[in-house]
Amino acid sequence: MHPRFIVYFLIGLAVVLVPVFVQSNYWIYMFTMVGIFMVLVSSLDLAYGHTGLVSLAHAAFFGIGAYSSAILQVKLAVPILPALLLGTLITAIIAAAIGWPMLRIRGPYFVLGTLAIGIAIEIIIHNWDGLTGGVSLSGIPMFPEVTIFGTTFDLSSKRFFYYLVLAVLVVTQILIRRIVNSRTGRTFASIRENEDLAAALGMNVSGYKLISFVAASTIAAFMGGIYANYMGAIEPEIAGSHMSFNLLVMIVVGGTRSIAGAVIGPLLLWFVPEFLEAAQIYRPLFFGAILIIVIIFMPTGIAGKLRSLHPRMAKWIP
Amino acid sequence: MAEFLQYTTNGLIAGSSYGLLALAMTLIYGILSVPNFALGGIYALGAFVAFYVVQWMGPGYYLFSIVPAVVIGMIIAIVTERLVFRPLYSAPHAAGFIAALGLYSILEGSWAILFDPTWRKIASPYNDIVLQLGPICLTMQRLIIFVFCMLFALATYYLVYRTLTGKKIRAASENKSVAQLMGISPFTTTTMTFIVGCVLVMIAGVLDAPAALVGASMGLTPITKAFIVVALGGLGSVPGAIMGGLILGLGENYGAAYISSMYKDLFSYGLFIVVLLILPNGLYRR
User: Fold this and answer.
1) Which fold has domain B2-278?
2) Chain B residues within 8 A of A112 when measuring between CB atoms
3) What is the pTM of this model?
4) ipTM of the predicted structure?
């Protein structure tokens, strides 16, 4: 057994034990949020890193997932779990509806389309205030208390959300791994490498692109629903093009097709600036500069660069 | 009928501005195969140049601000081409596009830091003069926008189709390697194209500034629409960009007038999707 598994185990152990040892709610919040970003970035990686779809609409589906679940709970008094699942389903359908015409379009047109969709959805959420509460939608309920075997669990605690996000992150990684190593995943890879050749070989390129796009969007939507309950209030910006751009920067800088990349991206580009309390105003400049430096000098991202340093290193970066 | 003429006028005015931006983008795309999204940040810079010239020298100098705008546009063109796009000549096109996004972010962020992120208005003397041409009502500023955009578009058309430099640009756009064999340097041609594109965009920024709010992120929506125009008009096609811009402006205004003005920006996106489904290669072939 390779020694790296010991390291992974220790890291995993530390991550699980964080809420036990960390008292400050602020840090729990920071870790939970960075976990949410990791889920979003991993799902984007499925569409971008593995299938080659540059999507600037990823945050839009995160937002739609959040808003669908929230609206069901706030306006229609649907209980939390059904609202979450229903919201995810609704978003998946929307993603399929949007993706189907979009994915037939090639190259820069497609990216433009996703950008247009991203901007359009933010505008719609913002303006349709009868449905979405306009500038912000609040009053999203907390998880209730659950009593099992005589012990009452207060699921409304922020610590519970930490574990929930962690669980989603782990399940997402397992899910993505299984997809990528399957026949579907290999089809994604051929589409990424040479779409025309894949089509010429008889692969259903549009169909598989749709699967990748919808799968990525669905994961983001599910995370969105959880995010809505976590925050209690949401605003249209979470679905916007700035957010989508940030996610794209995270995956490009962190490294595509790599779990380490999906971890490094949010840590470097969200956790560090938040931790340093870097003013919001400096971030676009910083993000843009890092993006350009990385894309010129390290196109495979930080994770890719680390892997390429030495053959032995590649084993250590998952 | 009178309203229809008014909407048509508004549409043509907005469309001329989109056309100019689209023209810049299509020229750069033709030679680089990368949609230069950073032009949005340059557009905002043009508006800021106009703002500060007016602030420091008075509203009378508004039109004069085109001069510094052109100069700054040239400098920015050379700098960005050298630093950002040249290293990516041989990289896959997605890399260039991502770099352009990064560059846009840098520009927008810089303007917010340097010029303060608050939105503001420019006092142009032409904003206050209102003309009445029969049933149509428009400010002098908007007439200037239309006239100047059309003039510069025609000037660019002349440059691209009637001069030697333009021929080089067209040759390099069609086939870089063969152009190189013919003695056309892809480096200088690309730099030339960048200069033309950035200057056009700076001018568009100066012209549009008094008719809109000036702010660091003012370029995002126009550049997205310009991108849509280029996609519709055919990537690399000059007449396609100009015609497409006018059509988009008209479509947007008719939509806002007859359907809903709150979702005005969405019409461009809707139009885009509808047209792309029918004509995946746009209106004009390259």
Assistant:
1) ABC transporter involved in vitamin B12 uptake, BtuC (1.10.3470)
2) 35, 224, 227-228, 231, 272
3) 0.87
4) 0.86
